[in-house]
Amino acid sequence: MKYVTRFAPSPSGFLHAGHAYSASMAYKYAMESGGRFILRMEDIDQTRCTPEFEDAIYEDLSWIGLKWEEPVRRQSDHFEDYAAVLEKLYDRGLVYPCFCTRKEIAAEVAQSANAPHGPDGPLYPGTCRHLTDDERAERFERGDAYALRLNMEAALKEKGDQPLYFEELDKGVIEADPAKFGDVVLARKETPTSYHLAVVYDDALQGVSLVVRGQDLFEATHLHRLLQFLLEFPTPQYKHHGLVSDLKGRRLAKRDKAATLRHMREEGYSVDDVRKLIGFS
User: Fold this and answer.
1) What's this model's pTM, rounded to 2 decimal places?
2) How does pLDDT run across 65-122, given as a tens digit for each residue?
3) CA-to-CA distance for 43 and 193, rounded, in angstroms?
């Protein structure tokens, strides 16, 4: 099988050794299979993503010897695409506006001793799910802030009794359990998409056949499989790898300057040094 893989960083900071590991693994699968390697900029958050960090990503990936197809897709250039997908889901009753603030949601969750929890914490209690069209129109007219949430109940009803599966490389076929996420946010008033919606759309659009990413995103695959079903997108294979840690066993983060590829380069590390560090020597 010729794999089409991708590395999709957010240009909101400098890449660290963990990014180099993930990108190198995706690149290796593509090259060894005679496939293709794609680079994509997940720059949805326009307040944190900058051209400086995007340029640094190109520099760092080139430094460790990776090459990618051009042009590079920037998600911020395609907000209209995601909005169109959301509109279709909205028309099918699969998405609804939620006007609750984070404070209001936290207060309502706190009142319930048995509030259900998902991979990302307490699930949204569904306060706005049953607002009438008039109530929603009034809130829109007032200019209230809102999020667009997936109506999980409606989505599972559309799925019916049909089980959904995805294949984890080296582990086999896994049945998806998207209900654990509840009515997850797919967009906000000021941001017309979420990571979940954009990544599913872009992977399908770009023909990605193997998604290589960190183990911290494994649970999200359950939700992504449901979105693929609802949008009639193909399901790629997945490879969730272990996370790279520092010498103290802490997960690497962009805020940790010492772990960035730029800092390593400035300190005299060679490409071979970095490749040995991440296990690709």
Assistant:
1) 0.94
2) 999 999 999 999 999 999 999 999 999 999 999 999 999 998 988 887 677 899 988 9
3) 11
CA 128 to chain centre: 25
Q: Phi and psi of 222, rounded to 5°?
A: -60, -45
Cis peptide before 9 (omega within 30 of 0): no
Read off the amino acid at residue 79.
F
Pairing of strands 210-214, 237-241: parallel
Domains of the chain and CATH, by start: 1-71+245-281 (3.40.50.620), 79-205 (3.90.800.10)
Q: Rounded CA gap, 164 and 175, in Å?
A: 6
Q: How many C-beta atoms lie closer than 10 Å to residue 105's C-beta?
A: 17
3-state secondary structure of 174: strand
Collapsing DSSP to helix, strand or coil, 240 comes out as: strand
Cα distance between residue 184 and residue 194, in whole Å: 10
Supply the angle between the helices 17-32 and 51-63 in degrees, to the nearest 10: 60
Residues 6+ apart with CB under 8 A from 268: none
Reading the block at residue 195, the tokens are 């990571």
